[in-house]
Amino acid sequence: MLALGASAASAQDAPSGEFTREDIELRDILIAAQETLLNIYRCQFGIDILAVRGGCAFGLPTLGMSQPAEFVGTPTLEDIEVRDRLVAVQESLLNTYRCRFDFEIDTHITPEGCPGQAGSQPDLSLDLEPMVLPGDFDGDLPPGLITPNGVSVAVAGLTDGGFAVWTPCGTVSKVSAGLPLQGIRVVVDPGHGGSYDIGAVGPNGLAERDLNLTLSYAVLNELSSRGIPAASTRTGHYGSPLSVRAAFADALGAEALVSIHHNAPTSSIGPEPGTEVFVQSVSAQQARADSARLGGLLHQEITEALSGFDNISWSRTNDAGVLRVLLPSGGDAYGMIRQPAVPTALIEYGYLSNPSEAALFATDEYIRVAAKATANAIEAYLNTDRSGTESNQQPRVFDPAPAPSSCNEVALE
Questions:
Q1: Nearest CA to 227 among 263, 288, 286, 183?
Q2: 70-74, 104-108, 207-211, 389-393: which has the minimum mean pLDDT?
Q3: Fewest beta carbons within 10 Å, which of 38, 150, 280, 330?
């Protein structure tokens, strides 16, 4: 693990008025490096994870290393002092993290050590959540696992020397160990994924599969911070058929499945978000009540949150809201709505094809706001009897193209 212990030279080391761009750049490099280490600590220790831009995945920052800011202008004493203060604050927080936990991580570079940890040595082999082996279970197996490579899978049973699991492509494979997924209340589904199923692409080059995954990580972090056990159908840049995703949520016995998407093509432009939430049917004439309540809460929380962004030209259809979409034959049109037994809602937060919205979706603030609104709705669904936005009475009738069926297997360990 990266360890930083020395700060940049202070502003007093250079005479007033003789600062250079190099003085700024050295400090900005240090600030970025210390921010990276702070985020690693946050993700490893599960503390302050909402401060990690892009969230955490498997104990590491999703977006990787922080990059130095680009400085524009002529360096001044104030520029230097601001950076020196930030470096000092970062170092203080780093040392707080080092001394706060019992892992004795990097405490050897903490000035004067940590209280009660005299002479401590670094321990880089963190094992915060030990893997389980098949022999660890006398009775029922966990319904799911996170494999050693961080892939979410449903458990099919035991096999020689390991667990038999369903891969993201729907075949049975073996893993020797994994982190158990038990007591999961919510499954989050980052729509699309892999090289065969990119989804929509914004005019800024933002791919829906990547945006959905980033937002899903943020939602999972929000739910975790509220004590709501949750898992994801897709944890990386790989594909998985809808049938496998639905079966995964059902196998875990989740109380809700929320599928995250961003829409295309652009429709008419207006002042209000065009968020659409698709819900399940019990018949061509009637929505499934629990799915409709979940969808109503999601639509209410998300549209209220997105409406707080200024100067956005939103794309919106005339019937945007909480919707059912039916095949001409009468069943639910979308596989991610039709196939799960668990109460499910599929969210189209907005239109990635719309330049104004695409620019917003590429920001950290959008991810933060959308994730919080989504978690608010899920928490309300689980713990209250609120109902949110009422479902549209008239369903759409639509026969979508089949979802991509090609799937490349991903290494599980």
A1: 183
A2: 104-108
A3: 330
Ordered by start, the domain boundaries in the chain are 11-109, 183-397
Place of tokens 């035991």: 158
Type of residue found at 388: G
**How high is the pLDDT of residue 47?**
66
240-284 residue pLDDT tens: 999 999 999 999 999 999 999 999 999 999 999 999 999 999 999
pTM for the structure as a whole:
0.70
Neighbours of 10 (CB within 10 A): 14
| Cα distance between residue 187 and residue 370, in whole Å | 17
Q: Which helix (H) or strand (E) holds 186?
A: strand 186-190
The three-state secondary structure class of 395 is coil
Beta carbons of 261 and 346 less than 8 angstroms apart: yes
The DSSP bridge partners found for residue 397 are 326
Tell me the three state secondary structure of residue 9: coil
How is domain 183-397 classified at the CATH fold level? Aminopeptidase (3.40.630)
Give the chain's largest Cα–Cα span.
79
Counting every residue written for the chain, the total comes to: 413
Q: What is the pLDDT of residues 59-95, one digit of tens each?
A: 678 777 777 777 777 888 877 877 787 777 777 677 7
SS (H, E, C) 352-370: CCCHHHHHHHCCHHHHHHH
